[in-house]
């Protein structure tokens, strides 16, 4: 194992700061790592959903579910239920399932149905019923079992992000990471424009070979002092604010995030063992904070509230380069795409892993800086396009907002190519591979999204499954039931 001996200063102790410190401390035991954070400036305090990729993070740290999950009030996530995004009859909701080995047999049947429908046949081609983790979810079952099974499931988690940061902090301190509470006042640059020191309000100087900016949306080092430009995504994605409230936990939680389209955005519902997290993500151009708060409270039920509403402004976009001179931005400081697919922590993890790989290849130099910045740009743009697709394919006409999401947003050339391939009935899997977008979201995810939204040619009678589909779905249901029974029920 290559070991980097550099001195590294991480500024910011939110989830990104502690995730970064954990992985660096684990991978580079010879480097001196220090994390400084303000006691006065809070963390963003959200980030309860994840993608399955986060499992690799805990594996890399050698932390077991039995250790971190109870501490972080965590629950299992089998996928996302999308509700009311489409008004097309028969497509008012769909489940975006994470995949299981068991899906190998029947995912192709679903894909085949979408091909037939896209080529004019009267089949429904809705994803529900084809994927094993949806069967588990319907029956309130978790995706892991002690029973002996011959397949593996891909799954993710929901958790209290504040507690996760606390847990990782303890992990880091045990590995020798130094920690101090200080408020950073300014940053000193040298003649080459690199960071020479970070200066606290008490005029204490912190120096390092490498500085990591984890200061959240304010991007204190990378934007405020290194002046790296910010590329907003507000032409592609309209939402710029969120309001959150917590409600009571339920005894048997639903192992899914529920994403429900509301009048001017969408609301998440995320089960934790101690509470249910709710938030409404909306566009301030179309609805005020007061109206959005009221709509969310009505949606979750006033009697269920256990916290006050909190408004969170969102800066959606990315810095042009997230590694500039001797500074790397990780977390909200490098960019943010609204949380529809819970990708915030995914970006953080992917960014650190890519950085570790390329910094090691360059033996602790910036030889691979350009490669790194291209990779991160690619990641952000691909995820953005996937999120944009949800808005683009909505069929709501009940507000100006939903019409604007369909008609006024900017679409990248690669997304246009994908949509054209889908609509023309061409081989969509092949187009995805060429667009390299399938590296992040597999072909199955794209098929679930586009068919689940009912983004299909209108054909008489196709809002109900055809006889052939009904036969296959009945066969799958009886085959999966045997496996479903092997998994325990969820509990609060
Ligand atoms: C509405 C919303 C919903 C989200 N939902 C999800 C989700 O479901 N899943 C997901 O993966 N992600 C989600 N995210 C993203 C996720 O919350 C963030 O990626 C994650 O919390 C990381 O934040 P951070 O550590 O970069 O920044 P922050 O949490 O803002 O932390 C910033 C840190 O910098 C410190 N700091 C700032 N200024 C100074 C200073 N001058 N001196 C010293 N320290 C300073 C602060 O004290 C703090 O410790 C969501 C984000 C939003 C806005």
UniProtKB/TrEMBL annotation:
UniProt GO molecular function: monooxygenase activity; nucleotide binding
Matching SUPFAM superfamilies: FAD/NAD(P)-binding domain (SSF51905)
Protein residues bound to L-tryptophan: 341
Residues binding 7-chloro-L-tryptophan, per UniProt: 77
Binding, FAD: 184, 332
Active site as annotated: 77
UniProt superkingdom: Bacteria
Keywords, in A-Z order: FAD, Flavoprotein, Nucleotide-binding
PANTHER family: FAD-BINDING PROTEIN (PTHR43747), FLAVIN-DEPENDENT TRYPTOPHAN HALOGENASE (PTHR43747:SF4)
The protein's name in its UniProt record: Tryptophan halogenase
